[in-house]
Amino acid sequence: MKQRDYYFDNAKFILIFFVVFGHLLRSFIEDNEMIYNIYKVIYTFHMPAFILVSGFFARGFNKKGYVLKIARKLILPYIIFQLIYSVFYYFLYNKSTFTVDPLNPHWSLWFLISLFCWNIMLIGFSRLSPAKGLLLAFGLGLGVGYFDWVSNYLSLSRTFVFFPLFLLGYHLTKDHIRVLTTPAFKVGALFAFAIVFLGFYFNPEIDYKWLLGSKPYSEMEAASISSMFTRLAFYLLSLMMVFSFLTIVPKKEYFFTDLGKNTLYVYLLHGFFVRTFRESHVQDFFQSPERFLLLAMIALLLTLLLSSKYAAAIAQPLIEFKTSRINRLKARFAAMVRFYRKKMLSN
Q1: Nearest to 13 by CA among 259, 309, 218
Q2: How far is 93 from 97, CA to CA, in rounded Å?
Q3: CA–CA separation, 67 vs 60, rounded Å?
Q4: Residue 332, H or E segment
Q5: Where are the domains of the chain?
Q6: Long-range contacts made by residues 139-146, C-beta under 8 angstroms, separation at least 24?
């Protein structure tokens, strides 16, 4: 049982690292083909896997008060950070006017709205058989691309495009995960990553925007019947990559395992650092390809910092509307002071 807990905490920490690293890489994809390919590989699995894991843990949607609970957990932080990011962007980009549009999510905040909607959608889809529900969900994800008005507004496009992964995660069981993580699949998973990277390398014209799920077909190509099949191909690609990733996630406890519980803090806070990085001259230092390994280390350090108990304690009032973390830190600090005071008096 503990191993499975470690497994999912490990998966979440590794995924949030790739979220941060991918966002840092974004500044360089137009100038470096190798980085562009790595970027696309990351985007085939990092958010899709996060969404699938979120669906796996969405078991209590039919409990009394659940809707109110997730609204407090997701919508309230969304509103707060939508306002904070609006202020942040106003100063960062030296905007002439200050505007707040609560229905057009800033950057990564789309996930909070979509996650709320996916939980609500489960109320209806859970009544269908897994096969019918998934078929309908994939059908909606494929069909929604033909409607030009379904885009970033209220995160509608991503909500429908990525819902099949959330629903699939909901239908997965621990036995499925146990089979998936057997050693026999690990070699195949690594092989899949290599093949996908080579596929992007030899086909550089593949547009990464298909992986974002945020735009209608008309903004990526002339909307046609083939557009639906293109998205279907990306669905299959993401599914293969998500399961390949889950296959190689370690099950043991590591120094970062416990930090996997704090991924929401990293997700909401890292944007301030990444956006500042993109607007600064610091990024010029990383133009050389050999320095991208250093960028990965920076992404790891930032992930460790923002998922630490100290960052979580400071941000908890804004994200969870609680002060329990900082109260625990105060209590530990007070106990430490008492201990050393007693030790000094005894000497």
Answers
A1: 259
A2: 11
A3: 10
A4: helix 324-346
A5: 2-307, 311-347
A6: 141/231, 141/235, 142/228, 142/231, 142/232, 143/228, 144/216, 145/216, 145/217, 145/223, 145/227, 145/228, 145/231, 146/216, 146/217, 146/223, 146/227, 146/228
Give the up-direction half-sphere exposure of residue 301: CA atoms within 13 A in the CB hemisphere: 7
Specify the residue for token string 């026999």.
184
Cα 152 from chain centroid (whole Å) = 16
Q: What is the DSSP string of 161-178?
A: HHHHHHHHHHH--HHHHH
Task: Give the residue among 66, 155, 169, 156 at the shortest CA–CA distance from 125.
Answer: 169
- In Å, how far from its chain's centre is CA 326? 25
Q: Tokens 């000094």 belong to which residue?
A: 344
Confidence of residue 347 (pLDDT cuts 50, 70, 90): low
pLDDT band at 2 (very low <50, low <70, confident <90, very high): very low
Q: Which of these, 320, 146, 163, lies nearest to 222 by C-alpha position?
A: 146
pLDDT > 90 in the chain, percent: 68
Region 126-155: mean pLDDT is 94
Q: What is the pLDDT of residues 96-140, one digit of tens each?
A: 888 888 899 998 999 999 999 999 999 999 999 999 999 999 999
Spatial contact of 191 and 240, defined as CB atoms under 8 Å apart:
no
pLDDT value for 1: 41
